[in-house]
Amino acid sequence: MTTDWTRRTAAEIADALAAGEVTSAEVTQAHLDRIAAVDGPVHAFLHVDAEGALAQAAESDARRAAGAPLHALDGVPIAVKDVLATDGLPTTCGSKILEGWVPPYDATVVAKLRAAGLPILGKTNMDEFAMGSSTEHSAYGATHNPWDLDRIPGGSGGGSAAAVAAFEAPLALGTDTGGSIRQPGAVTGTVGVKPTYGGVSRYGLVALANSLDQVGPVTRTVLDSALLHELIGGHDPRDSTSIDQPLPPLVEAARQGATGDLSGVKVGIITELSGDGWQAGVMTRFQESVDLLVKAGAEVVEVSCPTFVHALATYYLILPAEASSNLAKFDAMRYGLRVWPAEGASAEEVMRATRDAGFGDEVKRRIILGTYALSSGYYDAYYGTAQKVRTLISRDFEAAFEQVDVLVSPTAPTTAFKLGEKLDDPIAMYLNDLATIPANLAGVPGISVPAGLAAEDGLPVGFQILAPALADDRCYRVGAALEALLLEQWGGPLVPPEENLS
C-alpha cells in the first residue's frame, strides 16, 4: 500500500526520514503535487517554489545519506507567510505596492529553516500587510477555507492555515499581531501558536505593529508546533526586542501533556470572554473541552480580567498608530511600486498616486485612523490613553496568573463566516479578534487547539490556552493533553471533507 505522505504529521515524516522509509525529495514532491491538485480553489499560496524546494530536498537527502542531518526536521517541507523576507523569493505582504519585490536577505526565522534543512514550498496568502481577520483583504484574491470553500480561513494568516488544513504543507509559519495565527487555526481546525513576545525573532518580518507582531508555528498537532517553535525560537541580536534567554523545553512539555495527565495544573476560565454574542456551538465545544481538562486532573476555576472588555478598543488605537508609522516607508522613492500621475509630477504627487494605487481600502482605513490618533492635540487623548489601558490589561494578566497556571477561552466567538459577509462592516470583522487580542497587548504566549465541530454548521472550533510570559511550555503541556483526550474521543483527527477541494 502506497503511503500518502501529505497526511502524515511533521513528527511522523521526520521519523520516517530518519528510518530511511522515505526521502525528502519524495515527501516534498508529494506536497508539491498536492498543491497542484487542490490549491486552485483554496488559493493558499501566492508563490510556489517547486524548483527550489526540490533542490533543498535533494541536499537534505545527500546529508542524510552521509549520516549528517542538520536537525530532527531536516527534509520536512514547510510553507512561509508572505510577510517574512525570503532571499530570492517574492515577498509581497499581500499588497500591490510590493508586487514582484524580491528581498536580498532572509528573515532570521527563514534563515533558521534553511540552516536546519527544511525545504521551503513557497509563500502563503495573507490580508494586505496583515490587516484583516479573513484573508479577503489580499490584493491577490481571497483564500478559501478547506472545510467550506464559501467560508473565510481566518486572517491575516489564512493562507498558512489553509495550506496546513488542506494537507498542502505539514508545517507553516505565520505571524500573530492580534490573533492572526490563532484565529485562522480555530476556523480551519489547525494548531496555531503565538509565542511570548520577543521569544522568536522579528528581524526580516515586514512590520505591521512593532510592539504586537510575533512569528509563530502553524501545524496540525501540538507536538509539531513545539518542534517548529524550538527551531525558530531563541535570542537574535539583530532584533532589539528579542529576549536573551533560552526557550523553555517545549517539545518535552508537549510529550508530557500527551500522556493526558494534568494533575496539579490550575486552569482559569476568563469570565469576560463568553456570553452574549458567542456562538452556541462554540461555547458547547469549549465547555466539553474544559470538562476533559478536569478529567485529566486539572483544577478549573473562573477568573475575572475586567479590563479585557477594553482590549479591542485599545488594540484598534495602538495598531493603526504603529501601522501608520511603519507604512510611511512605502513612499515610491526607494523600492516597490511607483506611479507617475503626470509628466513632471512632484515627489509628493508621485507618492500620493503610488500609495493610492498600491494600498487597499483596509490599509488606507488604518493608516488614516493611526495618523489621526498620533496627530497633535489627539495623541494623549487616544494613543496615550490606549497605552495606559494596555498597562492595566497586563496587570490583569499578572493578577490572574497569581491564581492559576493558564487561562482558557474560546479562540474566536464564532466559526468561519461566509466570504464577503463582513467586508462592508469593519467593526463586525474586528470583533473576531475579541479573545485573541489581550495576549498581544500583554506579550504573553497563547495556543489554539482544535476543539471539535460546531453543531450548527459542522465547522471547526478553537480552544485557546494562555500562559505567563516565558512560560510557553505551559501552553504546550495543556494543549497536548487536550488534544490527546479529544483524539481519543473522536477516534482520530478531524479533517476537512476531500470533496470540498475538488
Automatic annotation (TrEMBL):
Among InterPro entries, the record links this protein to: Amidase (IPR000120), Amidase_CS (IPR020556), Amidase_dom (IPR023631), AS_sf (IPR036928), GatA (IPR004412)
Quickly give the catalysed reaction: L-glutamyl-tRNA(Gln) + L-glutamine + ATP + H2O = L-glutaminyl-tRNA(Gln) + L-glutamate + ADP + phosphate + H(+)
* Origin: domain of life: Bacteria
Cite the active-site annotation: 81, 156, 180
Show the SUPFAM superfamilies listed in the entry: Amidase signature (AS) enzymes
Q: Where is the Amidase domain?
A: 26-475
Q: Which Gene3D superfamilies match?
A: Amidase signature (AS) domain
One Pfam family named in its UniProt record? Amidase
State the UniProt keywords alphabetically.
ATP-binding, Ligase, Nucleotide-binding, Protein biosynthesis
Query: Under which EC number(s) is this enzyme classified?
Result: 6.3.5.7
Question: Residue span of the signal peptide, if any?
Answer: none
Which family is this protein grouped under?
Belongs to the amidase family. GatA subfamily.
**What does this protein do, in the record's words?**
Allows the formation of correctly charged Gln-tRNA(Gln) through the transamidation of misacylated Glu-tRNA(Gln) in organisms which lack glutaminyl-tRNA synthetase. The reaction takes place in the presence of glutamine and ATP through an activated gamma-phospho-Glu-tRNA(Gln).
Q: How does it assemble?
A: Heterotrimer of A, B and C subunits.
Q: Cite the HAMAP family for this sequence.
A: GatA
Q: What is this protein called?
A: Glutamyl-tRNA(Gln) amidotransferase subunit A
Could you tell me which species this protein originates from? Answer: Nocardioides mangrovi
- Lineage of origin: Bacteria, Bacillati, Actinomycetota, Actinomycetes, Propionibacteriales
